[in-house]
Amino acid sequence: MTGLLSWAVKLVAILRHRDYWRALRLGVAASTEHANTPLPFDYATVLDVGANRGQFALLAAHRFPAAQIICFEPLDVPRATLERVFFDDSRVRVVGIALAASARRSQMFVSAADDSSSLLAPTALQLATFPRTNVVQQVSLTTERLDVLLDGEPPVRPALLKIDVQGAELDVLIGAEGILGQIDTILVECSFVELYTGQSMADDIVRFLHDHDFRLTGAVTPHVDAHRRIVQADLVFARHPGESASLAA
To answer: How many of the other CB atoms lie within 10 Å of CB of 110?
Structure first.
């Protein structure tokens, strides 16, 4: 599907639902490409790591209307739009912190397309595969572990953890180890080639989550390059069936 056709299909899907319209007027398109992602519960909590302007949070709020949604977005410009999108929605909380494996000072490489910004420097392959994602500035910030931020406030189950942080996904998962026992489903963007310097690969994430009692249950929204090779995709992981079965009842 060409980029123009893909956008037209997405626009039609957005226009079908009135609760996406206000965000669209603010330039934010709900991630309707995830409308059929196999997320099996009516989640009570959604943790949206790398929320950007609220594209996934919009979908989550529509698909799981009873959920409390916590959005993590460290960059000022997209976070300001995110806050405007949900300014009157008590279900949504916005946290302006970057998540990682530890608390530290770090540099964010801010992309011309700010949803491609990362704590890791983009490679030449990233710039060739996704044009207009060149770095326009670097921002100094402090990172924190997710389990530290949620210490004393474990997510109400069933809980969904979505991670899209441009190559630093494994660091976020390591920083969430203390709460992974309260997470039922994980949706994480995974790369099959090195788009960001030193990033984790898809098999690293599969192995880590397997060791923490999650199993790969789905793969959606694949990006294929000009040679028909899969560059990245969003992978779905579910807690071992024996631990989550009662929640689906």
So the answer is: 18
Residue 19 within a domain: no
| CATH assignment at residue 209 | 3.40.50.150
Q: What is the pLDDT of residues 170-193, one digit of tens each?
A: 999 999 999 999 999 999 999 999
CA–CA separation, 116 and 50 (whole Å): 10
Q: Please count the helices (runs of H) and the strands (runs of E) in the chain.
A: 9, 10
- Overall number of domains in the chain: 1
pLDDT category of residue 242 using cuts at 50, 70 and 90: low
The residue among 5, 7, 69, 50 whose CA lies nearest residue 32 is: 7
Tens of pLDDT along 122-141? 999 999 999 999 999 999 99
The rounded distance, in Å, linking the Cα atoms of 38 and 93 is 24
**Contact in structure between 26 and 85 (CB atoms under 8 Å):** yes
φ, ψ of residue 221 in degrees (nearest 5): 45, 55
Residue 241 CA to residue 63 CA, distance in Å, equals 22
Taking each helix axis from N to C end, the angle separating 76-85 and 55-63, rounded to the nearest 10 degrees, works out to 30
Is position 21 within any domain?
no
